[in-house]
Amino acid sequence: MARAINHEILLARNVQSLSFFPLLRAYGLAYVSTTAPRLLKLLLLLYRKKSARGNIFASIYSVLAGSFAVRRFPTFCAALVGGYTFLQWLLRLLFDYASIPSMGRKVPSKRLRNASHAASRFLAAVISAWFSLDLLNYKAIAKVDRKKSKQAAQDQQRHVVNDTGPTLQTAKILDSKISQASPPVLAGKTVDLTLLTVTRALDSLVVNLCRRSHPSLANTASASSTLTAISRYADTFVFALSSGTVMWAWFYLPDRLPRAYNKWIGEAAQVDHRLIDVLRKAHAGEFIYGEDTGQAHILQGMCSDYGWPLAWGDPVKTTPIPCEIVHMGTGPSCHWHAAVRFSRAFQFALATNLPLQLLVKARNPSFRAFRRACEEAVRSSAFLGAFVGLFYYGVCLSRTRLGPRIFSRETITPMMWDSGLCVGTGCVLCGWSTLIEAEKRRMELALFVAPRALATLFPRDYNANHFWKEKAAFSLSTAVLFTLAHEDSSRVRGVLGRLIHLVLQ
């Protein structure tokens, strides 16, 4: 009788905690985040090209309606959060009910209740994330041309029939040939999302572990100087390492980066594609100093456009290629070129940062808010300017200014510098520009770039038979984030912690 009464009490308490608001909030936020950028882009296009209004309005309708599809990101977020909310309620009810007999009391202790609630959150998130990820990977894409594969199979069939006749052995050969010709089923559509989740989960685990092991880190006055320096500059180091990895991939492994990321880096770098082509060929061993490999025409085209001697672009006649080619018309000075690069990137970033900052601060307009918006926009733009400037300055320092003075030509040849070492030096230097940013901003930048750097270590498409591994990584990482942020938003750093806490409440 007492157990039945206690069960009724627990059931009533858990029913009150079940809510559909987390699901609705998740769907609404995901829908806005998905449609708003594309909608803004189309509205700007509508303002500029009034003659094509019909097509633009059709695109706007497609964006607004397409996001309501079942297998889109908003539905995925709703399924993830909705499944988590319901399963958490169900598991919490089961855990609370199972704990009553063992306690011998009317209600479980607070400690046991907290442990069961944490366990229910973790398990609910694992199960919900496991099945929700299928919504975004419902159709694996084969990168092989299916039409060509089918035609190849038919050609093989005709060849075998003509040679051997329609025997049983022929049928076996045909089956093996056609199976070899069919393209593999590939997965990987959600790799970026999974790596983002894994990175944030690892960051949260490490940070919370450090907070427990070294509580003095919260108070810089009592913490040791070594621990303070590590906690203060850890994000800077992570960003420098991650951004350097991304820049290296942009030069030599562009297929490992998303198409939009490649495009944005190219726009910010403002570099002649022929110079990038030569650096890639040098890295691949196709552009060699002192040898005629048939690649001289690439840089000689630049020499013609900029009015330089054609011999500068010929690797047989000029070793190494002058830095003035790398400067692309800014003159022979490497220092001046770095300053020009800083200025160009600063202007490029300011054109985006300033309007965004003013738009954010427009919610509470005041002179102080306007001044703060300008300061933050200038600071972020200076960061990007320094990033680009340091990269190009690192290239020049290593290949002509400082590198040859430290290492002789016999130790490190000009070919070795231009085949990767000069780009590597730029990759090492550029990320430290994040020191210009505020400490909180450095944290956000590090957490933003780290998953992109991690993605360069994995193929963007893989055999669908291994999709369960990605699901396991995503499910466990989501469970860590949901369990920590649901209880306390500060346990997951940055905006993500506050966002998860807001949605799940």
UniProtKB/TrEMBL annotation:
<dbReference type="InterPro" id="IPR026749">
    <property type="entry name" value="Tmem135"/>
</dbReference>
<protein>
    <recommendedName>
        <fullName>Integral membrane protein</fullName>
    </recommendedName>
</protein>
